[in-house]
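Section 3.1: Structural characterization of target chains.
Under the original work plan, the team committed to producing a structural model for every single-chain target entering the pipeline before any wet-lab resources were allocated. The record below documents one such target. The sequence was received from the expression subgroup and is listed exactly as submitted; it comprises 132 residues.
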Amino acid sequence: MKKIPTGIKSFRKLREENYYFVDKTLMIKDFLERGSEVTLITRPRRFGKTINMSMMSEFFDITKDSKEIFKGTKIMDTPYASELNQYPTIFISFADAKENKETIVKFLKNQFQLEYSRYNYIFKKSVSIRIF
């Protein structure tokens, strides 16, 4: 019997750990076809913003191998399946950025540093970043 994914924020975990899954992968197709420079996704709490963004990150991120978790999904039946894991992708969720301003700023600095570290190989050795 499948589990209900209450509180799950990771698309990979949702797919790998036998949670109940409603296929929303065609959201990726809609996103690509829209061609917007900026996309604002607003929904009330508990409407799946983080997990949908996690899904998009898993789909696009060049540092991941997501073939298995997208197997059998609707996006894989479209021409956009060729976009799987082809782009440097930065995914930063504000879901855990809580409490006071100082804590939130520290959280965001840490997230930016982690993302920079993942793609450090892109930058020349002479380039450095420092987050204050």
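The longest helix spans residues 101-118.
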